[in-house]
Design brief:
The protein is an alpha/beta fold. It has 13 helices and 16 strands. The longest helix is centred in the middle third of the chain and has 23 residues.
Amino acid sequence: MSKITDLHAIEILDSRGQPTIKTTCTLEHGVRASASIPSGRSTGAAEALELRDNDAARYQGQGCKKAVDHVNKEILTSLRDRDFSTQQELDETLIALDGTDNKRRLGANAILSVSISFARAVAKSQEEPLYLAFSRLIKRQVERFPRLTINLFSGGRHAGKQIPIQDVLIVPASPESIDQSLVMMNNIYQAAAEIGLQRYGMRLLTADEGGLAPPFPNAEAMLEAAVTAIDNAGYKPGRDAHLALDVASSHFYRDGSYYLDETPISSSMMIERLEAWCSSYPIVSIEDGLSEDDWDYWPHLQEALGSRILVLGDDLLCTNPERIKKAVAARACNALLLKVNQIGTLSEAARAYGMARDAGWMVTISVRSGETEDDWAADLAVGWSGDQFKNGSITQSERLAKYNRLLEIENLTPMKIASWPN
């Protein structure tokens, strides 16, 4: 049993300079731990609702004082001096206290900050690493590290929409450790920066998640530059390193058509475009290749590409068990992008994870574009045996905090890295 004696939240700033929330949970006997909560820019319509103040005089209405007050008042009053035997018991209490279908009353940011700070405090009280505490939530042994998928180039909402698709990522394939993966990525990143300078006069300016953002004329130019960067760094594209795409199609889908440029294309034509990219470039994963509203065509995308690559659902699924259930029944994809703040508690995310695994899907543990220096996501990726970990690029402290945590775990507990892609 773990008794909460105090909760204290404050408003802090994320990596984009926007407000978010940090909560400290204190257990009986004075054990104390904190958790900071990320925020997404490219959000799915079905995500749990972050509570914002809508006060135009502060942070363009994006302040989190209301969420902070909910933790410090109503949630604390409800939870203080109560014993919780499990994480699920705590999370179910928070869900019931909120009483809405998307956590809009208390705020998913407030609720998740309590959920994760409690988990960290319990792990601390039991003197165990957080990743082991996380592993017990899904009843899995920790046996390996996830394969990294690391942002190289960015567009879409992460980079001012200079190109519609959101991210091209590098998947280090030949490295057999986190350390070797980061060494390879550093070399490729520097080669890509040189390409940006030579072709576009682009100095080292980065997007929300640390990716480079040259003014590519189209998606094909971005993909070609990524392959050239791998080659220029001394690696073999398609052997040593592969590509992954975050297409984020919902953001250029209007009135039943996709707008990769000024000419609208149909869902079938969008699938054909994705097939062509996979035939021309060493792509092993496509995230949100279609819009979150284009349910009728997701099974066609899965049929076309699912035997070759990961057809990864993000906005489509929103780490939501009900949407995952629908996608499994429709055979709409074969992999889940898991973001805990999309659903709002660790226990609900664990349920989503279990449903994906039961369906035979791969699972990518992901952070958000608005991150903090908190590193709990790295422990989650290890503890939940993620097949992949999507953490942004290898610049900026909010990204490096997670990579450094993986290096720390690897140093203390050497394990193999996930074999995908093979």
